[in-house]
Amino acid sequence: YRQSGKISGIQIADREGNPGTEFGIGEHFTVKFIAKVPEHVQKIVAGLEISSLDGQKLLNIRSDGQGVVFDKSPDSDNILFIVNIPGLPLYPGIYLMDPWFAEYRGSRIDQINNQLKISIHSKGLLQSEKLIQPGRGVLLLDCQWTHECLEQ
User: Fold this and answer.
1) pLDDT of amino acid 128
2) What CA dihedral angle connects 53, 54, 56 and 61, to 10 degrees?
3) Residue 44 and residue 33: Cα distance in Å, rounded?
4) What is the rounded CA–CA span in Å between residue 73 and residue 59?
5) Alpha-carbon torsion (97, 48, 113, 30), positive or negative
6) Which residue among 2, 16, 51, 56 has the highest number of C-beta atoms inside a 10 angstrom radius?
7) Hey, CA dihedral for 75, 107, 50, 7, is it positive or negative?
8) Kind of pairing, strands 57-62 and 43-52?
């Protein structure tokens, strides 16, 4: 008999640590969640799937995608995962954020689906926010533009 793992105690906070779910485009925030890891699992990876309300998958942030694998403590089955997100360059709107964890090189142990919503607003952090046209995209980026006039 192998006990199953479970995610509990999710918190989203701004750069100062204040809980909240509303952020500017490209504004830094942190997601923390506690996972009870099954006894037989020793190495763990964690992630967040971000999607639009209509179900379009936009991003799957994974610890192992950056070479980060967590070791479980021999003293406890509970792990607090903390992911610092440098900001999402998404158009204003409401997005779903689904935290998950899995056995390293194994299958997902638990995932919280469609319960965590964040709201992205225009706060003027990016220059591109001056001209947001709804329906014209999902991502917003500031790029460097130059030009050269060519001779005839």
Assistant:
1) 92
2) 20
3) 14
4) 29
5) negative
6) 51
7) negative
8) antiparallel
Q: How far apart are alpha carbons 137 and 11 in whole angstroms?
A: 29
101-114 pLDDT per residue, tens: 999 999 999 999 99
Structure token pair of residue 48: 């967040």
> Residue 134 pLDDT > 90, yes or no?
no
Provide the token pair at 147. 């030009």
3-class secondary-structure state, position 108: strand
Tokens (6 digits) for 124: 């003027």
Query: Which residues is 48 bridged to in the sheet?
Result: 61, 99
Say if residue 5's pLDDT is above 80. Answer: yes
Any idea how long the chain is? 152
Amino acid, single-letter form, for residue 67:
G
Cα separation, 51 vs 56, in Å, equals 5
